[in-house]
Write a structure and sequence with these properties.
The structure holds three protein chains of three kinds.
Chain A (H helix, E strand, L loop, with lengths): L14 H24 L4 H18 L7 H33 L7 H16 L2 H12 L3 H25 L3 H9 L4 H35 L7 H10 L3 H29 L1
Helix pairs in contact in A: 3-4, 3-6, 3-8, 3-9, 3-10, 4-6, 5-6, 6-8, 7-8, 8-9, 8-10, 9-10
Chain B lengths: L10 H20 L4 H18 L7 H33 L6 H16 L2 H12 L3 H25 L3 H9 L4 H32 L10 H10 L3 H29 L1
Chain C lengths: L8 H8 L8 E9 L6 E10 L3 E6 L6 H8 L7 E6 L2 E2 L5 H9 L1 E4 L11 H6 L8 H6 L4 H13 L15 H14 L4 E5 L7 H18 L2 E5 L3 H7 L2 E6 L2 E6 L6 H8 L7
Helix pairs in contact in C: 6-7, 7-8
Chain lengths: 266, 257, 273
């Protein structure tokens, strides 16, 4: 009599998981196909494209280097906007991060509220923030700084609150047991632990903000975006090229700086 | 016994903080950020908030159209971007490819990253006209710049021992990649991809401002018409959409890991 | 000759309510359960601790030893009962009073619980955080008297050469010494130790226990040590409290701790030598 062999199956995922994964694949593909069919693409524009691109490239080159001083001044303004905006966002983000961290603020209501503030800050684009602030404070760097700050609070606050939640509880417990007041527990228990993460987050956001600040001027919030915008309005493409080159150079420099500081600090 | 020093003063840190304080004062001056302007602005801000609220949803069809288009732009751009990032990231990994392959690949990725999606969108609008396609292409470029870069870095961080083990079995290059490299980096690749999907959703709401399709256009139009009630409705809708997007992205991550 | 009565002393002391000078710490009917309807982890503990001596609390894991220790300085909230520390009921103290009580109670932890990125000196000075205003601590401007005391304590525990080193560069035994120095910095009236030797090798464990006994003698304060190593308990304690399933089943001198007591506490025969 033959024994019934038990075929041992090696499966990476349980049947329920496989079904879940398959369903997700299906949903993703369906979303893609659906989107493709309903998006409007005007074919004439598409055929025109290579010509247009060549035309654009021709007009961009050579860049108008005589325009450099104006560009340089605007660039410096952009950097200031990025820097001040990042600093302001950090100042605003710290209290919100403290409220959002479950291990520091036990009230679930406050946690949720703080997280809502952070999500809203992140969901609205810096460009849209800039529009809003230009409407309130008028065009110029003030609107730019506030736009950068309000957009970055969500980013910095979220990462900071996650870093706070990941700190070791032991040392904090020891300080509580020694009768330390809340403020001392923060400065001696939490701050030393989140310090590396804090600087890393600040640096990361500054890097992104340099890029963001460059385009805010397109809606009037100061910096090199303004220069870009006026040049484009007047179809002075060679000046546009100068501005773009300057932006590129600054972004590259910022990256180099950040990598360098990262290595030294962390 | 007295006078033993408990802490060595950290002069570098103190200098750093001082420099920072001086810089803030200096920069604020240069940008003409005076307290007076701020106070005036607060007053304006109050009035502005008054005009924003209550949000007006009468033109909700326009709103839904715009949101749907933004969603589609985000989905397509993410799919294409992720698809392209896979081979490009692979080509850019210095531990898998010779330098004459990886260097141009890395340069390409750096180029994609350097320009803000808005600027790229402007170029595409000029090249192929207004509409969703320009927005999609702009976000594809942004996606490649992000996902391919992180993917290449993840590949460079893997343990080569596993790869060598697979190579030693005489496997073809494709198999080495699938069995030696991918298992180690797939989880992180999925993480980057879901992050980029989320990021594209945010950006897709913005490319419309320069003509790249989606709700950005509707938003800008409302702004220029001073239709602030509608503007507020659009903003709320965008925030809601992005919150849903974050949840979906988190779900995706959980399912695939 | 002590007969090692199973419980008796504690009740008498608690009932007679000897003044805070004789018994700085008195626990009455302490119960603890982690949530309504869940089993009691501490089942009505009553103990009185004298002003001097090393008390070892022994028992298997999960029997409530750690919960008991942590209820004393209210790191864990008691469900009911009284914890009288120098006449004040810790269980009912408000926030401010609780801080004042806690700064008079030093605690040493199993995982040392030092702030890794701070220096040894800064960690020891953390013991004064209950006394020093927050801004002083932040700017590191501690009173010179505190600084001198910190140096002296580091001498006492043998870590003078490590004063400015980061805490995470030290070995386990060294870290525990810093932990003890930090606790003593508080100038405490009571020292608690929650499994101080469980993460250390046998030789270092003995060194740490010797240090704790030295602190008990020199400062004339009671030291409560939560420990699961019975040999160490026997060697260093002047009184042993054995717990089993949330209740005290032995309370007496270490000499009186016989095999039958250990069997009641720990159950099983195999591990008895």
């Amino acid at each position: 009599m033959t024994a019934v062999t038990d075929h041992r199956h090696w499966q990476r995922f349980s049947p329920a998981q496989r079904l879940g994964r398959f369903a997700t694949y299906l949903a993703l593909v369906a979303a893609f196909v659906l989107s493709l069919r309903t998006v409007e693409v005007i074919p004439e524009f598409l055929y025109d494209a290579p010509e247009q691109v060549m035309d654009l490239l021709n007009r961009l080159w050579p860049p108008d280097l005589a325009y450099a001083p104006t560009v340089q001044q605007a660039l410096v303004e952009t950097l200031h906007i990025a820097m001040l905006g990042t600093l302001l966002s950090i100042v605003m983000a710290v209290p919100v991060a403290l409220l959002a961290a479950r291990t520091i603020t036990p009230s679930k209501g406050l946690n949720w509220l703080a997280k809502l503030v952070l999500v809203s800050s992140r969901s609205v684009n810096s460009l849209v923030w800039a529009l809003l602030f230009v409407a309130v404070f008028g065009p110029g760097a003030l609107a730019g700084v506030l736009a950068i700050a309000f957009r970055s609070v969500g980013f910095v606050g979220k990462l900071l609150s996650e870093a706070l939640e990941e700190t070791a509880r032991g040392p904090v417990e020891a300080l509580r047991a020694a009768g330390a007041p809340w403020l001392s527990i923060m400065t001696k228990g939490y701050w030393p632990q989140v310090q590396p993460a804090f600087w890393s987050i600040a640096l990361f956001r500054w890097d992104i903000n340099v890029r963001e600040s460059a385009v805010l001027g397109l809606v009037g919030a100061g910096g090199i975006g303004l220069v870009l915008n006026s040049a484009m309005d007047l179809f002075q493409w060679d000046r546009v090229a100068t501005a773009l080159l300057a932006i590129f150079a600054v972004v590259v420099l910022a990256e180099v700086l950040v990598t360098h500081v990262r290595k030294r600090l962390l | 016994m007295t006078g033993r020093v408990a802490f060595r003063p950290n002069w570098a840190a103190r200098a750093g903080w001082l420099l920072l304080a001086v810089y803030v004062v200096y920069a604020a001056q240069i940008l003409d950020l005076t307290w007076a302007r701020f106070i005036v602005g607060l007053d304006q801000g109050g009035r502005f908030l008054g005009r924003l609220f209550p949000p007006e949803f009468q033109r909700w069809e326009l709103l839904v159209d715009g949101l749907t288009e933004s969603l589609q732009i985000a989905v397509i751009a993410s799919a294409l971007g992720i698809l392209i990032s896979l081979p490009v990231g692979l080509l850019a990994a210095r531990n898998l490819m010779p330098w004459w392959v990886s260097t141009p690949a890395r340069a390409f990725i750096a180029l994609c990253r350097s320009f803000h999606p808005i600027l790229v969108a402007i170029v595409f609008v000029k090249a192929i006209g207004f509409g969703a396609l320009a927005g999609i292409l702009a976000l594809v470029v942004a996606s490649v710049g992000f996902v391919a870069k992180l993917f290449a870095e993840a590949i460079e961080e893997i343990s080569m021992k596993q790869v060598e083990a697979v190579r030693a079995t005489g496997a073809s290059f494709a198999n080495v990649v699938t069995m030696g490299v991918l298992p180690q980096v797939l989880a992180r690749f999925i993480g980057f991809s879901t992050y980029q999907l989320d990021s594209n959703l945010r950006n897709s709401t913005m490319v419309g401002i320069v003509g790249g399709g989606g709700i950005g256009g509707t938003l800008f139009a409302a702004f220029q018409r001073f239709d602030y009630g509608f503007l507020c409705a659009i903003l709320i809708a965008i925030i809601a959409l992005i919150m849903v997007g974050e949840l979906v992205a988190a779900r995706l991550r959980a399912t695939f890991q | 000759m002590p007969d090692g009565t199973m419980v008796g002393r504690a009740d008498t002391a608690a009932r007679s309510g000897g003044g805070p000078q004789d018994h700085p710490l008195v626990i009455r009917n302490l119960t603890k359960s982690y949530g309504a309807g869940r089993p009691l982890v501490l089942k009505g503990i009553s103990l009185a601790f004298e002003a001097r001596g090393v008390v070892a609390i022994i028992g298997p894991s999960g029997t409530g030893k750690s919960t008991l220790i942590r209820c004393i300085n209210r790191l864990v909230e008691p469900t009911s009962g009284e914890i009288l520390f120098k006449g004040r009921d810790v269980a009912r103290a408000g926030r401010r009073e609780l801080r004042h009580v806690r700064r008079r109670i030093g605690m040493v932890f199993q995982e040392y619980n030092l702030v890794e990125r701070l220096s040894v000196m800064e960690n020891v000075l953390c013991g004064r955080l209950g006394y020093v205003p927050a801004w002083r601590a932040w700017l590191r401007r501690y009173p010179q008297a505190d600084v001198d005391k910190a140096f002296d304590l580091l001498d006492m525990v043998g870590l003078s050469d490590f004063v400015h080193q980061r805490a995470d560069s030290l070995s386990g035994g060294q870290r525990q010494r810093v932990g003890i120095a930090r606790a003593v910095m508080q100038d405490p009236d009571l020292l608690l130790a929650d499994e101080p030797t469980s993460s250390l090798d046998p030789k270092t464990s003995v060194e740490i226990m010797e240090l704790l006994r030295e602190v008990a003698d020199r400062r004339a304060i009671p030291v409560l040590i939560n420990i699961h190593d019975v040999t160490l308990a026997r060697r260093f304690a002047t009184r042993v409290v054995g717990m089993s399933e949330g209740a005290v089943v032995y309370d007496g001198p270490p000499e009186g701790l016989g095999d039958d007591h250990l069997r009641t506490i720990y159950g099983g025969e195999d591990w008895l030598s």
